[in-house]
Prior knowledge:
By secondary structure, the chain is α+β, with helices and mostly antiparallel strands. It has twelve helices and ten strands. It folds into three domains: 3-106 and 129-188, Jelly Rolls (Sandwich); 190-239, Orthogonal Bundle (Arc Repressor Mutant, subunit A); 243-306, Homeodomain-like (Arc Repressor Mutant, subunit A). The protein has a six-stranded antiparallel β-sheet. Strands 3-8-5-6 form a four-stranded antiparallel β-sheet.
Amino acid sequence: xxxxxxxxxxxxxxxxxxxxxxxxxxxxxxxxxxxxxxxxxxxxxxxxxxxxxxxxxxxxxxxxxxxxxxxxxxxxxxxxxxxxxxxxxxxxxxxxxxxxxxxxxxxxxxxxxxxxxxxxxxxxxxxxxxxxxxxxxxxxxxxxxxxxxxxxxxxxxxxxxxxxxxxxxxxxxxxxxxxxxxxxxxxxxxxxxxxxxxxxxxxxxxxxxxxxxxxxxxxxxxxxxxxxxxxxxxxxxxxxxxxxxxxxxxxxxxxxxxxxxxxxxxxxxxxxxxxxxxxxxxxxxxxxxxxxxxxxxxxxxxxxxxx
Length: 307
């Protein structure tokens, strides 16, 4: 049995319910879907998403990323995206492995195993290189796939997880650092990279999305000038800082209405909107339905799936 077939077999046994499930291995989740799903806004944290079977599409701004067993997806910072499983069936369900990325461990590995950069021609004046987009697709190598199989196979021997999962997880990070298209993960490992400077501003927005802010304050958090910050923020997230905050607000408002049965006006106020009409307009633009109708539809769908 090849590595991919083995990964499908293991995930089929341990991803038993629809959606994402945490496993006994720290930082590892498994995902299952038996049919294509509607596009759903979610907040991606720094993760590796490795598909064993099926296909998924993620939208970051207006850019679509389609990945499958031959291509893995890497998210480098917290990003509000829209994701949908686009290939899945009861006979061949969508199955994937999600690994949380430990930036401190990536940095340690990068320092221990540096990659020599190609020699560049001298420039007349220095250029402020734009950071990569916060999401990248790269080829799934046999070495990475083999490590993934050994990691999830620990689910069959729970007593080995504590001793072995840190070792195999570190190997997977090493494969990301040394594999093809490793530019983004190398940026993650550099504490003072432009990517990590933007990540500081993103982390502040994630924790303070319900508060007013000034672009100059965010630029100061990132350690950049205003114009440089704005350009770099959009390069990484595909959104302006204000649009990024709006997506964080609207995703949390949706959660409050669906999971906590909060009314639309209360949810909008809780996440920082002062105008109910502006909240409704922004919500409808992102989710396709007014807040109350969308929340009612999702609650009804949840009740049907539970029965």
